[in-house]
Amino acid sequence: MGLEEQLRLLPDRPGCYLFKDASGRIIYVGKARNLKNRVRQYFQSSRNLTAKVLAMVGQIVEIEHIVTDTETEALVLESNLIKKHKPKYNIRLRDDKHYPYLRLTLTEQWPRLVVARSMKKDGSRYFGPYTSSQAMWETMKLARRLFPLRTCNDPSRYPRGCLQYHIGRCLGPCLPDFDRHREYAEAVRDLQAFLEGRTQEVLERLRARMEQAAERLEFERAAELRDQIRAIEKVTEKQKIIAHTMVDLDVIAYARLYDEAGVQVFFVRQGKLVGRDQFLMSGADEMTGGEILAAFIQQHYSQTDFVPKEILVSEDLPDADVIAEWLSAKRGSRVALRCPKRGEKRALVEMVAQNAQEAMTERRQQRELELAATEGVLRELQAYLDLPRLPHRIECFDVSHVQGAEVVASMVVFEGGRPKKSDYRRFKMKVDQNNDFANMAEAVGRRFRRGLAERAAQVEGRVRDLEEGRVAEGGAEYGGKFADFPDLLIIDGGKGQLSYARAVMRELGVDHIPTFGLAKENELLCTEDRPDWIELPRGSQALFLLQRIRDEAHRFAITYHRKLHRRASTHSRLDDVPGIGPKRKKALLQHFGSLKAIREASVEEVAQVPGITLELAERVKEALGGPMR
């Protein structure tokens, strides 16, 4: 079906649209109040489209759409689809999956505060993400000092109380005669409020409890509460007052750097600045400031539980009313989303914007220093090895096995002196398991055969683009990771491995790529063009870079080899039976206890296991042997 026909079939309804290229990959996800009108705008006139959007439109061959009941639902769906598919042309939060959270385990009998690497829908309360692990651990340390919740995984292991209990940092739910259930529940509630920045609320509750304890003549308990109040007051005294009303709000501003945007968020709770975070957004080139902030708000607040009553932004947002409606639904009460133009709040926004600009300036300077240092190392390496061009892309191959078993090879890639892990590849050897030289040749051959095939696909894609009137740039999308050839190829090994690798490269017509062997024993390099070994100066940055690349290839190969070895060590004859997957295998072993018991059972007895038909039972018995009846 052609694009014109696909456009004609779009409904006049709210929803999300997904643009796909010729390979079926989703390259952009968007939302719309009216799908037909919004999507048609991309194809009606190119005058108002940026170069980036034009390039994207030139690659679209299929349009998929999902209808929703409201525009707010479309906004939520768009955020989820972007996170799932990571489309090339959408602006996205970078590396959010690496940011840690603090997790309050509310579903456990005795909740505790722990570190989590991702959010799950498990009934826990998550705080974060924390872009600084140091800030996260400082918050954890403070919370554990102020609120005496358990820190152990299994309270039953400490019937006499753990160390934290004996030093007054835990109420001791592990004790058999523990009777402070109410106090523990109050500590959990206070910790949650404290981490949300509602310290004044916590202090008011603690003061009320202290007075009640004193009235009941529980002076020891009153003293504990007094000390807790003083500790919290000491912490909050250090927090800067930036609003003269007891208000909870987030203040968000951004600054640009190349195709990135740095978004700065200041967290104000009850009028005091309790923290700030810096986030990076990729794909921000040609996006307006409002579009950057809107994308950030959607993605950031979809990952966090707490939404403040008010959010201030440095620029007006597109679809601000829809975003505010979504935030309000998430919070459970009205959220004000504002771009202040004057007054105290405008000054606050400008202060955050200034911080964002300073952070990105620092990032630019750091990047320039790193680039200058890296280019110097690469030029040094180019001179030592007499390379025709700067080795921007370096690939390294390593083979790993134990006595010829589970032979694997790895290919690691460094670009600009840094690992490019998205281009790493692993190969399970298929030919000669006991010949290191042949294994290296197989890995190198498979890499370049795939690369040549992808380059051919690129050419075909460009020709098809030109014939169909699409943007020629789109042809590049038909290739894969192997289509980029290295400026320098390193073989982990000596002249034998190098010779076999070069032979297969000549056969494929890629022997123009400079290739060197790097011996482990003495860190010497060899190449076909020189009879003698090449020794780089000890302590040189060029040698250090090659060692780092070689060690990374070895690590990557060893990791894969161990994975295969573990899989082989847990392999059973049941794994070879068609129709028996992990669940049915588990059911059989749980029912009979061992393979021997299954072998001795009859077909009818095996068929009594849930999920096992009579036909499957016969297959199992044929594979394992033993009596059929």
Write the layout of secondary structure elements.
Elements: H1 3-8, E1 15-20, E2 26-32, H2 35-44, H3 51-57, E3 62-67, H4 71-85, E4 92-93, E5 101-104, E6 113-116, E7 125-127, H5 133-146, H6 163-166, H7 181-195, H8 199-215, H9 219-237, E8 249-257, E9 260-269, E10 272-282, H10 289-301, E11 310-313, H11 320-331, E12 336-338, H12 343-385, E13 393-402, E14 405-415, E15 418-419, E16 425-428, H13 436-468, E17 488-492, H14 495-508, E18 515-518, E19 525-527, E20 530-534, H15 541-569, H16 582-592, H17 595-600, H18 603-607, H19 614-624
Helix pairs in contact: 4-11, 7-8, 8-9, 12-15, 13-14
Supply database-style keywords.
629 residues, Nucleotidyltransferase, domain 5, eight-stranded mixed beta sheet, single chain, GIY-YIG endonuclease, six-stranded mixed beta sheet, 19 helices, GIY-YIG_endonuc_sf, globular, alpha+beta
Task: Explain what the structure shows.
Helix content is 45%, strand content 18%. With 629 residues, it is an alpha+beta fold. It starts with a helix and ends in a 5-residue tail after the last helix.
